[in-house]
Every structure is written in C-alpha cells, then in structure tokens.
Write a structure and sequence with these properties.
Blueprint lengths: L2 H17 L5 H8 L3 H7 L3 H25 L4 H12 L21 H23 L9 H20 L8 H13 L2 H10 L4
Helix pairs in contact: 1-2, 1-4, 4-5, 4-6, 5-6, 5-8, 6-7, 7-8, 8-9
Length: 196
C-alpha cells in the first residue's frame, strides 16, 4: 500500500469530518481522489478510519508537545510554545477526533496516546502552579479542560472565519492566563505580545 495515499485519505477524511461529522466513506473517497474500493483496501470500515484519524492526531500532539516539554524552560514559556504550535494545526487535531476519547473503551493505541497527552498536560499545569503562573487553588483537571476547550474553540473560530489564524494563539493564551493566571503572568504575557 502507498503511504502517500493512506495519508491523503486521512487528511481528506479530517477535512470532510470537520465540515460534516456524518460524512460517509463515499464522500471521503471522492475528496481523497480514490475509489471506494481503494479506500476499503486501506480502511475496512468508517470505524477503522476514525481510529486512524485519532492515531494521526495523537502522533501530531506528541511531535508538538514532547520536544517543548523536554526543553529547560519556565512553564509559561512552554505554554506559549505549545499553544503557538498546536493552534495552527487546526482540524488535523480536531477535539472530536482526539480529546474526547472515552478512556475505558476503544483501541488501546489511541488510549495510550490519549493518556500520554493528559499526562503531559498535567505536568505542564503542575509546573505552571509551582512557578506561580496560575492560581494554586484551581484544580489541575479544570486547567487542562480549559486549555483544551480554548484550543478547540480557536480552531473552530479560525475555520469559521471569525478570527485570523495569526490571532488565534494569542487569544488562547490571553484568555487562559486572564482567567487562570496570576497578575504577574498576565503582565508577563502583555509584554510578550510583540512575539505574536
């Protein structure tokens, strides 16, 4: 099987599902420029294709987050780097394809990627708390949920044409730190605005 065709089908499936969550395999095959028989050679069912999308999203998350988390940087700077790299990925990391994964069921590979993402998000949020960048009183689970929701809304708003792609990371960071950050973090972010 051709890896380029496999990847093209996944990318077109993501685009189709971003427009219409009920998109069928026929529509996806047409968008990918392949026949349905070809699509079925790569993916036996829509469920198999959805798993492939989730695995692709998980791999992309790993490629964005892991190198930043490995850097010796303050947590606020890690947050900025992660957000500015995640937001431009848009629908390829659509929350419906990855973040909302039910942990107790499904493909174990997807579950492992999902749990790794949650672990990294927790590490970042704990580091933000430890450095005094966000309120110590807020539960880590709330910080993670807020960050995920803001990133998702940034993708959705860009795709609807409501905000500019270059504006989206700043809006995520400003909203997150305005709501959860300490006064020092808000002031620090204000001075970072020229980066955007």
């Amino acid at each position: 099987m051709n890896p380029a065709t496999h990847d093209r089908i996944i990318q077109q499936a993501i685009a189709c599902l971003a427009r219409n969550s009920n998109a069928g395999l026929k529509e996806i095959a047409r968008a990918a420029g392949v026949g349905r028989a070809t699509l079925y050679r790569y993916f036996r069912s829509r469920a198999d294709l959805v798993v492939a999308i989730k695995l692709s999203a998980g791999d992309q998350l790993q490629r964005v987050i892991e190198p930043v988390m490995a850097e010796d940087l303050p947590a606020r700077e890690k947050l900025v780097r992660i957000i500015t790299r995640l937001v431009p990925l848009g629908s390829s990391l659509n929350v419906s394809a990855y973040f909302d994964y039910p942990v107790k069921q499904g493909d174990p590979r997807v579950k492992a990627l999902y749990l790794q993402h949650k672990k990294r998000s927790k590490q970042l949020c704990l580091a933000l708390k430890k450095e005094g960048a966000v309120s110590w009183e807020l539960p880590v689970s709330w910080l993670i949920a807020s960050m995920d929701a803001l990133v998702f809304e940034a993708w959705a708003s860009v795709e609807r044409g409501e905000i500019a792609p270059k504006q989206a990371p700043w809006l995520v960071l400003e909203t997150f730190l305005s709501g959860h950050g300490t006064r020092e973090s808000r002031e620090w972010l204000y001075h970072q605005k020229e980066v955007f």
